[in-house]
Amino acid sequence: MRALILSDIHANLEALTSALAAAAPFDVLWHLGDVVGYGASPNEVLDLVRPLAQLNVRGNHDRVCCGLTSALGFNPVARAAATWTNHELTPDNLQWLRDMPQGPQTPEQPGVTCVHGSPLNEDQYILSMRDAWAPLQQMTTTITFFGHTHLQGGFSQKDEDWHEIRPKYATRNEEDTWVMPIPPGTRHLINPGSVGQPRDSDWRAAFAIYDTEAQEIVFHRVPYDLTASQGRILIAGLPERLAARLREGR
Ligand code: ZN
Q1: What kind of fold does domain 2-248 have according to CATH?
Q2: How far away, in angstroms, is 34 Cα from ligand 1 center?
């Protein structure tokens, strides 16, 4: 089975459509949250993701954009985008966001958990080995997929061996993949990266595919129509920084 894992789409329609085209064919879609916020196409993105995803986990932006959580903890740019998104969303999409389940969630595939931040706390950022240590100890499955940091890669553990995972790509502007085997006896925390607002200095949309037969994870980067996505943000009157950062991948 080929499971497509998407996270942090952030209402970027151009990035999402490029990612879906590059990922096909896939059998299931597991979605790790932050489907809206920052970008200018919240309804279009939700209309694509909702019928495709077998599993959804809510993100902090999903909670704030649908009014479940106050935007007071957000910086001014994120808050402005959340307020704009809240006004833009259809009643049906607003309700769907309010009903999104909190992580951890488990798909039918055994040995897998899906979360937004950390398996221990949905809002926690797993950025370093120090952050990864407790979740790796306490995970009940061999693989946990997480998002929230917008950094593709993750952490693995086998007995006393700990590794940070950072995909290495030969190209900067073309479609590219990086394959990582899952050896027996290892535990993995895997971040597919952010589809719609990467922050690892690579502007291309990020996602991952878990091949359960081959026991490997394939990390992907795909170029998308950046100018169109930036144009939508500017036309919508959203903060200019949200358009500029897409090019920088920051
Ligand atoms: Zn996010």
Answers
A1: Purple Acid Phosphatase; chain A, domain 2 (3.60.21)
A2: 5
